Amino acid sequence: MPTALVTGASAGLGAAFTRRLALEHHDLILVARDAVRLNEQAEKLRAEHGTEVEVLPADLTVDEDCERVERRLADPDRPVHVLVNNAGVGLNSSFVEADIAEEEKLLRLNVRAVMRLTHAVLPQMLARRKGDVINVSSVSGFGPAQPGATYSATKAYVINFSESIAAGVKGYGVRVVALCPGYTRTEFHQRAGINIQPIPAKAWLNADDVVREGLHDLRRGKSVSVPSVRYKVVVAAMRHLPHGLVKRLTRDTRGRIKQAPKGGDGTRR
Known about the structure:
The chain is α/β, with parallel strands linked by helices. The chain is 47% helix and 13% strand.
């Protein structure tokens, strides 16, 4: 069976990817920081789908851990057929008030790890002329956002990076897509300290639906996937409206900061 490596596999979109890929008869490599949750997820997948599951605990912001995952991806004797770069983090504070160490950690996870793991897996995929890379981005990558300036910038990187790599490997049997969901019901917003109460119910997406549509678009040859019609409309507007208007409309898209003391740094992951 083909093997898929999923980062951020213990919850949210990552867990949804593992369920879907197991259903499609993939063996799995689960990567996340929480070894306990990874092992629980692995046992459940083995019991429900009979798939082989390898657990690889790693903090992708740490060089040694990232290198360990890179070595697994590059192993020619145990090829990885699908890479899902899903691990990511957000901060719900203004850039000026943010802890710069946390901003740098966000860059290491949202950008550097995506680049490094993609670079590690592509040679063996190209040698076999077969493979899929799914890089999880966000609709926030299509325009500026406040707060979360660094977050939206990292997601813009993932979109442009994925489109560029997809063009470079076209014709070699390797497919690359940037998956760009809107608000999705996962643990992400809670961990980032975002108050989700003002977000309308109709704005929310289901993680399993996001994964299913992302895989469908990948297999249709798309390099960017925006799940759901309503978010396709949002992205089309962001791409075609005057830039000044887009900045005004997106200024508060993630602007639900918990009140911090003057001089404080908002919320923490």
